[in-house]
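User: I've been trying to design a sequence by hand for this structure and keep getting stuck. Would you show me what you'd pick, starting by listing the structure so we're on the same page?

Assistant: Good idea, let's start from the same input. This is the structure you sent:
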C-alpha cells in the first residue's frame, strides 16, 4: 500500500486535504470540467513516464481474430499465440450485437452526463454496494489520481435491481442495457476460455465451466472527460487486471496502450471489435504461460468529447464464500508433465487474498502478481 495521502509536503501542500475535498464533492472529475477548469489540481499530477511510445505500426502486434472462422484449430492457434506473446487481442464476429454495444456506450454516457445530484445518490466507496459511482477506487492509496470517473456494477451471477443505479437512470432502459451487455460479455468470455483451455492442452470446459473463471462479471464503466492538461496526468495508470479475463468495449476515440517490449503500444479501436486481455489470475493458473500485460489509458486530449469504455472483468462468483476461499494455483497438468514439467512460478492463493492486495496497493505502477511469485521464481525474467 502506498502511503501517498498521509503527510504534508515540504512546501506546505496538504495532499490529504485536497483528496478529501475532491472526494466530498461527489461530482467526480467531470465536476471540474463542468466548472470550466483550465488547469488540473495537483492531486492528478503524475511524474513524466520515461517509457517510449511505439510508432503506430507496432499496433499490428495486437491481432484481430475472427471467431467465426470455420477452422477452430486455427482460431485456437491464433488465440494461443496472442495470449502467450502479447496478452491482448481483438475479436470480431463475437456474437455480441452491434446495436447492444452502441447502446451500452450510450448508457454509460447518459449516466455520467445526467445532473450531478443524481449521481451523488450512489457515490460511495463502500465496496459491499453492488452498484456504485466514484472517481478513482484507489484515491487514497495511489501516488496520483487519474482523470476519470467510474460506474461499477457487480453484474453476474446475481445482477442488481434497477433501482440500485439510482434515479432517474434506473427508471430508463439504460440500466437494463448494461446488464444485458454484461451477460453477452460473460458468454463471450466463456467461449474464449474454451479456446484458451484447448490451447493449453486441457479439456475445453476446464477454465470456464469447471474452474468457474467467468461465473462472476464486474462491469467497470469508465468515463474520461476532456483534460485541459493531458501531459500532466493519465486516464488510467499503468496496471494489469484483477481478473481471469477482461472483455473491453471501447468507443472510437482511442487512448488504450499496452506495454510490449518496453514500449507503450496503441490498442486502436476496430469497428465492431471487442478487446480481450489476459488477467493476472489467468497468468497465475497457467503458470506464467499466458501473459497478463500491463496497460494504461492516456488522458483525453479532446476539448469537447469524453472517452467511454466498458470493461467486463470475468472472475469467480465474488458473492460466493466457496469461491472466495478456494485456492487457485498453477494447473497441475502444466507443471507435472512426463519430462518433469515446469516449476511452479506462483503460490496458490485465494481470490480474496489477491483482491485485497490489489485494492490495498492501488494503481501504484507495480504489478500485483509479482507479490505472489515463489522465491525460486524470483530470479526469472519478469513477464511484464
Amino acid at each position: 500500500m502506498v502511503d501517498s495521502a498521509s503527510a504534508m509536503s515540504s512546501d506546505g501542500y496538504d495532499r490529504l486535504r485536497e483528496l478529501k475535498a475532491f472526494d466530498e464533492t461527489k461530482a467526480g472529475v467531470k465536476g471540474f470540467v463542468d466548472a470550466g477548469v483550465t488547469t488540473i489540481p495537483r492531486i492528478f499530477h503524475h511524474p513524466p513516464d520515461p517509457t517510449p511510445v511505439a510508432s503506430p505500426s507496432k499496433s499490428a502486434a495486437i491481432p484481430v481474430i475472427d471467431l467465426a472462422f470455420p477452422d477452430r484449430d486455427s482460431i485456437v492457434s491464433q488465440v494461443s499465440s496472442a495470449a502467450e506473446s502479447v496478452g491482448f487481442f481483438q475479436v470480431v464476429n463475437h456474437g455480441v450485437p452491434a446495436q447492444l454495444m452502441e447502446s451500452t456506450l450510450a448508457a454509460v454516457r447518459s449516466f455520467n452526463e445526467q445532473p450531478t445530484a443524481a449521481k451523488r445518490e450512489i457515490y460511495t466507496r463502500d465496496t459491499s454496494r453492488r452498484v456504485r459511482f466514484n472517481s478513482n477506487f484507489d484515491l487514497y492509496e495511489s501516488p496520483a489520481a487519474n482523470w476519470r470517473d467510474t460506474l461499477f456494477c457487480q453484474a453476474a451471477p446475481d445482477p442488481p435491481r434497477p433501482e440500485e443505479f439510482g434515479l432517474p437512470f434506473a427508471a430508463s432502459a439504460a440500466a437494463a442495457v448494461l446488464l444485458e451487455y454484461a451477460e453477452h460479455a460473460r458468454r463471450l468470455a466463456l467461449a474464449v476460455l474454451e479456446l484458451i483451455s484447448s490451447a493449453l492442452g486441457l479439456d475445453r470446459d476446464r477454465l470456464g465451466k469447471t474452474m468457474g473463471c467467468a461465473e462472476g462479471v464486474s462491469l467497470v464503466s469508465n468515463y474520461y472527460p476532456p483534460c485541459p492538461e493531458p501531459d500532466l496526468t493519465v486516464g488510467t495508470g499503468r496496471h494489469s487486471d484483477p481478473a481471469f479475463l477482461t472483455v473491453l468495449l471501447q468507443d472510437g476515440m482511442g487512448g488504450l496502450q499496452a506495454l510490449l517490449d518496453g514500449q507503450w503500444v496503441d490498442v486502436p479501436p476496430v469497428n465492431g471489435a471487442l478487446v480481450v486481455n489476459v488477467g493476472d489470475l489467468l497468468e497465475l493458473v497457467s503458470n506464467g504461460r499466458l501473459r497478463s500485460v500491463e496497460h494504461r489509458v492516456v488522458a483525453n486530449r479532446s476539448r469537447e468529447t469524453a472517452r467511454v469504455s466498458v470493461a467486463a472483468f470475468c472472475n469467480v462468483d465474488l458473492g460466493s464464500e466457496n469461491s472466495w476461499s478456494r485456492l487457485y494455483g498453477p494447473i497441475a497438468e502444466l507443471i507435472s508433465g512426463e519430462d518433469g514439467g515446469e516449476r511452479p512460478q506462483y503460490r496458490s492463493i485465494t481470490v480474496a487474498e489477491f483482491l485485497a492486495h490489489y485494492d490495498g496497493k492501488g494503481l501504484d505502477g507495480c504489478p500485483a502478481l509479482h507479490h505472489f511469485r515463489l522465491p525460486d521464481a524470483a530470479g526469472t525474467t519478469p513477464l511484464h
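That's my pick for every position. To get oriented when you compare it with your attempt: The chain has one domain: 17-46+61-318+343-365. Residues 17-46+61-318+343-365 form a domain with the Jelly Rolls fold (CATH 2.60.120.330).
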